[in-house]
TrEMBL record:
Gene3D superfamilies hit by this protein: 3.40.47.10
Organism field: Paraburkholderia phenazinium
Signal peptide positions (record): none
UniProt domain Beta-ketoacyl-[acyl-carrier-protein] synthase III N-terminal: residue ranges: 112-191
UniProt keyword Transferase, yes or no: yes
Any one Pfam family match given in the protein's UniProt record, by short name: ACP_syn_III
Protein name: 3-oxoacyl-[acyl-carrier-protein] synthase-3
UniProt superkingdom: Bacteria
Keywords, alphabetical: Acyltransferase, Transferase
Biological process (GO), any one: fatty acid biosynthetic process
Limits of the Beta-ketoacyl-[acyl-carrier-protein] synthase III C-terminal domain: 245-332
Single GO MF descriptor: 3-oxoacyl-[acyl-carrier-protein] synthase activity
Length: 334
């Protein structure tokens, strides 16, 4: 696998969340559980839940926050990439819906989607970095906006206790001479034997309502075989990370921070334990936001930057897994 170092700079990030907050105490009461049960079991204290928002409006809010952070305006953006795990609607694609939601700010620029479930942001960043470095685009906005609320089975615990809704965006450009910001290495692997471990079957032509003799509602819900997914990802992770770091010519000890996809309490803790990374070098926002699907990783990245946990020139690693089964990672200099 060839890895090409790219002179790419994240020049601004932003996030957005729905107005309503759903606490784990409320879920405890809903299921008749003692106070603190859900938080103790799943590690999520609160998550944002969509009522009247849609993913396009959340995406616009996150994009505008990223633009403000970068000191740019929409007139500076020449490519918009939606890197979400879920669709706002079947057609048109998410990026077109986001551009339409801009209203008067919208202009005729390239807009398209990049999808890889929970790793959509990482895959989008990896893919677009080559186009930016080559000069095809100047300033690219990559945004992940996911609403999990309506795909969860709220009659049971489990996934309904873990997921939250939200959006996160980043503006990237080519690094200027003298700027250290760069992508040192990236790696993405998909293991098709895990395709059934995590899915929402409805939404496409395979399980279209016109082909079904029964209600589509059960097929519209998120299903995950947690133990099999966790076992498969855990088995591949050490080898995967070693290959990624070897390509970057760095060791784990040289990384300032590790920014993982906020999959679950078990996944984050296992990652830290398996790689022997202390908590002070791991970004963990799960307790306050839950798993925001594709928006989780860029949200964690944003909060680490905004909280001063990384400075320009610091080497960091983005890492995660998602439905597919896919594992992805990137080592970069912020």
């Amino acid at each position: 696998m060839t890895n090409h170092r790219r002179s790419i700079r994240i020049c601004g990030t932003g996030v957005a969340v729905p107005e309503q907050v759903l606490t784990s105490d409320e879920i405890d009461r809903r299921f008749g559980l003692p106070a603190g049960t859900v938080f103790k079991r799943y590690g999520v204290r609160a998550r944002h839940r969509t009522v009247h928002e849609n993913s396009a409006t959340l995406a616009v809010q996150a994009c505008e926050a990223a633009l403000a952070n970068a000191g740019l305006g929409w007139s500076d953006i020449d490519c918009l990439v939606s890197a979400s795990a879920t669709m706002d609607q079947a057609l048109p694609y998410n990026a077109a819906m986001i551009l339409a939601a801009l209203g008067g700010h919208a202009k005729r620029i390239a807009a398209f989607d990049v999808g890889a479930s929970c790793l959509s942001f990482l895959v989008g960043l990896d893919t677009l970095s080559y186009l930016v470095e080559s000069g095809r685009y100047r300033n690219v906005m990559i945004v992940s906006a996911d609403i999990a609320t309506f795909s969860l089975d709220w009659s049971t615990l489990g996934e309904s206790a873990i997921f939250g809704d939200g959006a996160a965006a980043a503006v990237i450009r080519k690094s200027a001479p003298g700027e250290a910001s760069s992508i040192l290495a990236s790696r993405i692997e998909t293991y098709p034997e895990g395709a059934e471990y995590c899915h929402i079957k409805a939404g496409g032509s395979r399980y279209h309502p016109r082909r079904l003799s029964s209600s589509i509602d059960p097929l519209s819900l998120f299903h995950m075989d947690g133990p099999r997914l966790f076992k498969a990802a855990s088995r591949e992770l050490p080898r995967f990370v070693k290959g990624l770091l070897d390509s970057a010519e760095l060791t784990l000890d040289q990384l300032r921070l590790v920014v993982p996809h906020q999959a679950s309490r078990l996944a984050i803790d296992h990652l830290a334990k398996r790689l022997r990374i202390e908590a002070s070098r791991t970004v963990d926002i799960l307790a306050d936001y839950g798993n925001q699907v594709a928006a989780s990783l860029p949200s964690a990245l944003h909060h680490a930057i905004a909280g001063g946990r990384m400075q320009r020139g610091d080497p960091i690693m983005l890492i995660g897994s998602g439905a597919g089964l896919t594992i992805g990672g990137m080592v970069m200099v912020y």
